[in-house]
Structure formats: C-alpha cells, structure tokens
C-alpha cells in the first residue's frame, strides 16, 4: 500500500501553465490514495520537482534544487522519496538517476498519469525511469487536484510537431496528440459542475487542435465549449499565428464569453530572423492577422513573446522588432534573451549575440513596452471593469483579480466578502505599468456576464 509508506507530499512547479496543470494531476493522483499535500518539503515523505527546460541552465538549476532535497533526506530519520518530473526529467532520463543517487524516479511529462504505478514499482525496490511518449496516455480528469481558484484548465492538445529552431518542447513534450472533442467536453462539464466559471483550454499550439476522429478543428471546439451553459469566461493558450484561421477569428466575434484577450507569440519583428527561427510566417502576415482580429473583436488585448539576441540578430533586425512593438501596441510582452537549448537547430546557426548586447536590447524593448502598457492602462482609468477575483492582494483587506482582457487589478475588498472566482464590478482609479488599481466593488456585482471593454 503506497499510502502506508507515504503520507504527505510536496510538489514544486516551475514553468508554464502546462506544468501547473501537470502538477495538479500529480497531486490529484496522490490525494486519491489518501496522501495529503504540505507546503513545506521538510514535512513531506515524497517531494516532486516538476521542472521546466525552456531556458538556459535549466539542468544546473534542477540539480542544485535536487541537492537541497538530498540534504533534507540526509537530515531526517524517516525515509524521503524524491521524484524528478517535467521537461528536464524527459531530457535527462537515466542520466539524472546516475547523477543523483538519492533520486527515486524520473517521470516525463507524457507519463504524468502513471505516477501511482511508478510509486508502486519504487516501493517494490526499483529506481524507475518513466519517459518517452506512449501512444495511449493516461488522462484521468477526476484525478486532478484543481487548485481551487477561479480557473479550470483543460488540456486539449499535447506536444508539438513544429520545428521552431530555438525550441526544445518537441523533444521534451513529444509529438502532437489531440484529445477527442467528447473527452474535452466531458472535462469542461465536470469543471462547471464544480463551480468553475472560467475555463482555459491549453496546448503548446492550442489552435492546431483537430478532433482525431471527426475532422473538426479549433473553431468547432470554440463553438462547442463556448456554447456550454455556465461557461462565463473562456480563454485559450498558446495560439500559433500561422494556424489562426479566419474561421477562428470569426468565433472571437461570435462568442462574447470568449475573453477579449489573445496571446499570439510573434518572436521577432524581422522576416530574416523569423526565417532563421523556422516560424513559417512573415511580419506582414502577422500584422494582417492582428488587423483581422481587431476588426472582428474591437478592444481585444493582444500579448506576445519575443526572443532577443537570436543567433545572428543584427541591430537593424532588432530595430524591426521595436517597430512591430510600437505598431501593434501589445497589452503585454513576454521577452527573453535567446537561450541555447540542447539538440535544437539554432545551435548550428552560429554564436548568439554577445550577452551584454542582447541584455541591452532586451532592456530597450522592455522600456518601450512599459511606456505603451502604461498608456494603455491609463485608458482604463474611469472605466468599470468586470473583475474575476483571483486571491488576496498584497495589502490587508485588498483583493486581486483579472479583467476579461487579463489585466491585473488590485482593489479594496470592501465590506462584502468575495471568494476567488467571484466576478465583481470594480471602478478603475489608477494605472500602473503592469496593473490597475481599483476602488471598492460596486453594488450589483456578481453577474457573470463578460463584456468587451
Ligand atoms: S510552436 Fe515552436 S515555439 Fe511553440 S512549442 Fe512548438 S516548436 Fe516550440
């Protein structure tokens, strides 16, 4: 019996929303066995490190964190089991077991649903490496310990078949695999029954989803999910620009409960850099798509990703990125310096831009974006936003939440209690570069209708 040897577990999560959901899946399987979560690894019998390998030095960071778990194990009398999960687990496999003798098992992202079997094998004496990409993956949505907040995440597509030259994801998360429509709808209904009003569909290239049996595409999936009674807010991430069809754009206009926010990574404003990245689109096509989306859904907030200092990026090419930022006026930008990842094609494109230069470009980009973001946020002052409460604010009595456009709002809770997931009407009083400040929620709050700004 696993729960006789393991009574408490601790999960540490690094990286993206896919990892967040995977951690909820790990926790859910353990809780079904009667094993309880703790916030302090020192109080656990099992610690899981759910790792991310998107950026440089990921492996070193993982080994250093495993080192602190080893120390924990040495310092206590009772046994402590240690598991490495996530993308670094897939990447390192047997190497991790050889390098860390105290490591009990390695569990790749496509094998998350097998935690119980892996633990049983470990308790029988085997040090297990469960990596690779089985055709049939276990996905039991009843065994997901939702984190109890406002949003229920649903994986619709796993892995990625694209070959962007900088990206390690296809080798850590494996080939693309879509879940059938019926399975997705069953999970969304399950979330609605548990009171989640906001649903987020997840995938590395979420809009490349196809129903494996019925030939439906992501536009059909949006129709099906947005049409379910009780879905007050629908989000999806991450969209691949080249796969965003006019049918999908039309759904943004058709369904008011699809949030007016879209994350559309462009990565660079230069066609020559995009070609070296293997992205499969040009800047003009991206801008056409932005115009089409904005015409279909006025007021929609767009966010994006940039990689700065990609191998061979010249100052002129970087200037195109600044021009694109100024032209599109994104609501948010996630920008990082290029990070060489093992096994990716970009390693053969020559040395990256010198670190200092790349950092300097990144700072220029972020300064420009901060100005734009502050201006966009200032436009919201005086408006009343429908804010979904996500948790407590930094000051006593304050709450935090998100607008339909995904802007963060901090506001005083007022006299009426509000739980995470409640939707309140909050007057916006002040704009900061990365968030808004609001006044007390207005009376009559609590409707779930989403309106575009
Ligand atoms: S689309 Fe490109 S960047 Fe995104 S996960 Fe796939 S390979 Fe990586």
Strand percentage: 15-25%
- Give the radius of gyration: 23 Å
Assigned CATH architecture of the largest domain: Alpha-Beta Horseshoe
**DSSP strand count:** 19
Hetero compounds: iron/sulfur cluster
CATH topology of the largest domain: pyruvate-formate lyase- activating enzyme
**What is the CATH class of the largest domain?**
Alpha Beta
Can you give the helix content as a percent range?
A: 25-40%
Which secondary-structure class do the elements indicate?
alpha/beta
Report on this structure:
This protein is an alpha/beta fold and 453 residues long. It has three domains: 2-130, Rossmann fold (3-Layer(aba) Sandwich); 141-378, pyruvate-formate lyase- activating enzyme, CATH 3.80.30.20; 384-438, OB fold (Dihydrolipoamide Acetyltransferase, E2P) (Beta Barrel), CATH 2.40.50. It is built from 14 helices and 19 strands. The strands form five sheets. The protein has a six-stranded parallel beta sheet with strand order 2-1-3-4-5-6, with helices on both faces. A five-stranded mixed beta barrel has the order 15-16-17-19-18. A three-stranded parallel beta sheet has the order 7-10-11, sandwiched between helices. Strand 5, helix 6 (115-123) and strand 6 (128-130) form a beta-alpha-beta unit. Helix 13 (315-328) packs parallel to helix 14 (355-378). The termini are far apart. Residues 160, 162, 164, 167, 169-170, 204-205, 240 line the site of iron/sulfur cluster.
């Amino acid at each position: 019996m696993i729960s006789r040897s393991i009574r408490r577990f601790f999960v540490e999560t690094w990286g993206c929303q896919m990892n967040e959901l995977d951690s909820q899946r790990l926790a859910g399987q353990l809780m079904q066995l009667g094993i309880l979560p703790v916030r302090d690894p020192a109080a656990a019998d099992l610690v899981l490190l759910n790792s991310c390998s998107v950026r440089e030095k990921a492996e070193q960071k993982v080994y250093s964190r495993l080192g602190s778990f080893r120390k924990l194990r040495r310092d206590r009398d009772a046994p402590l089991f240690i598991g490495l999960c996530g993308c670094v687990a897939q990447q390192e496999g047997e190497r991790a077991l050889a390098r860390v003798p105290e490591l009990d098992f390695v569990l790749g992202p496509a094998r998350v649903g097998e935690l119980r079997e892996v633990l049983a094998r470990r308790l029988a004496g085997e040090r297990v490496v469960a990596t690779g990409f089985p055709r049939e993956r276990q996905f039991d949505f009843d065994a997901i310990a939702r984190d109890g907040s406002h949003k229920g995440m649903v994986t619709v597509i796993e892995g990625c078949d694209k070959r962007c030259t900088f990206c390690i994801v296809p080798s850590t998360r494996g080939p693309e695999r879509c879940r059938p429509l019926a399975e997705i709808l069953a999970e969304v209904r399950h979330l609605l029954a548990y009171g989640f009003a906001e649903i987020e569909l997840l995938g590395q290239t979420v809009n490349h989803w196809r129903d494996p049996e019925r030939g439906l595409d992501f536009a059909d999936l949006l129709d099906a999910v947005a049409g379910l009674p009780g879905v007050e807010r629908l989000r999806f991430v991450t969209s691949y620009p080249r796969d965003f069809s006019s049918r999908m754009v039309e759904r943004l206009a058709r369904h008011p409960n699809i949030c007016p926010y879209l994350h559309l990574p462009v990565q660079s404003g230069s066609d020559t850099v995009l070609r070296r990245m293997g992205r499969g689109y040009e800047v003009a096509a991206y801008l056409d798509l932005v115009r089409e989306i904005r015409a279909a859904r006025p007021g929609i907030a767009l966010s994006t990703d940039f990689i700065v200092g990609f191998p061979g990026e010249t100052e002129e090419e970087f200037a195109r990125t600044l021009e694109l930022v100024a032209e599109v006026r994104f609501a948010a930008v996630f920008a990082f310096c290029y990070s060489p990842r093992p096994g990716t094609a970009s390693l053969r494109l020559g040395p990256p831009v010198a670190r200092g230069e790349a950092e300097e470009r990144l700072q220029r980009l972020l300064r420009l974006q901060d100005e734009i973001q502050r201006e966009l946020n200032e436009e919201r002052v005086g408006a009343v936003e429908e804010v979904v409460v996500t948790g407590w604010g930094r000051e006593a009595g304050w709450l935090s939440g998100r607008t339909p456009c995904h802007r963060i709002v901090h506001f005083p809770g007022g006299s009426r209690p509000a739980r995470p997931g409640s939707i309140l009407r909050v007057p916006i009083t002040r704009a900061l570069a990365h968030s808004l400040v609001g006044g007390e929620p207005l009376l009559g709050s609590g409707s779930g209708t989403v309106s575009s700004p």
